[in-house]
Specification:
The structure is a homodimer. Chain A is mainly alpha-helical. Chain A has one domain: Arc Repressor Mutant, subunit A (Orthogonal Bundle), CATH 1.10.10.10. The termini of chain A are far apart. In chain A, helix 1 packs across helix 2 and helix 2 crosses helix 4. The longest helix of chain A has about 35 residues. Chain A has a two-stranded antiparallel ribbon. The radius of gyration of chain A is 19 Å and the shape is globular. Chains A, B: Keywords: DNA-binding, Transcription, Transcription regulation. Chains A, B: This is MarR family transcriptional regulator. Chains A, B: InterPro entries: HTH_MarR-typ, WH-like_DNA-bd_sf, WH_DNA-bd_sf. Chains A, B: It holds the Pfam family MarR. Chains A, B: GO terms for molecular function: DNA binding; DNA-binding transcription factor activity.
Chain lengths: ~150, ~150
């Protein structure tokens, strides 16, 4: 394979990744719309779910969003009934955020179930070596993405 | 490899994909913040760039967003100076949207350049067969993602 063909392959994959990122964002926007949220709120809810109870400061650290943006996110999530704020029982000066589990898991899962099943059926067509290659690819991509997000915040 | 190990591999990749989608959305949110936009506006700008001149109706079709949401998106993009509306010279009853190319390409590219370089260096470590496997994986994932987005819109 010539240098040009190699470059063409890399170019096609790059374009594919760009399209994939657009498709992913539009899918999550559609899920978020169903939940009455924007896509940043939706992904923050996912992060709160995995790290609760959480302070606004910690959510800001984990997401790279400014504290001002995070306050707005928590306000909207609280208003929509997905999370609530309470005083930290271990330090009454601190406010922590918790998820209303039944509402959040029920509503998010209802909208992601069909997507999850389709992806699962697709992934099962790959053998174990290929699954490992994909896992490794996403590990590297996540490292790059998080580093670049942090750079943008500086 | 036992059934359990296979299931574990698939589970790990699934979790990885979920994290990757969160990281991607937060990265694009960070780019959008730099541009003074939200992430949906930012991705719509990308789609307008590739399909201009475009009507609001066509943008709604391509994104799956409601016409109401699309109007808000174009308003914000116009206010931020990235796009402008004009009457379609071929049909004066129609309004079409165009991009202020210099501003849009200059500002978006400035923020994506470092990310693009890091991804390129990472992708170059894969051989052609692996690149093809990744391309094919993203092709399938995009089909699923777009189908599921359309389902959510019904």
């Amino acid at each position: 394979m010539s240098t040009n063909e190699r470059e063409n392959l890399l170019h096609l994959l790059n374009e594919q990744l760009r399209h994939f990122s657009t498709d992913t964002i539009l899918f999550h926007q559609a899920v978020a719309e169903k939940l009455g949220l924007n896509s940043t709120d939706h992904k923050c809810l996912d992060i709160i779910l995995r790290n609760q109870p959480i302070t606004a400061g910690k959510l800001s650290d984990l997401t790279g969003l400014t504290t001002g943006t995070v306050t707005g996110v928590i306000d909207r999530l609280e208003k929509a009934g997905y999370v609530f704020r309470e005083k930290d029982p271990e330090d009454r000066r601190k406010v922590i955020v918790r998820v209303h589990m039944e509402k959040a898991e029920g509503e998010i899962m209802a909208h992601l179930q069909s997507f999850g099943q389709s992806m699962k059926a697709m992934l099962e067509q790959y053998d174990n070596e290929q699954i490992k290659l994909l896992f490794d690819f996403f590990e590297r991509s996540r490292d790059i993405t998080r580093n670049e997000t942090l750079k943008l915040k500086k």
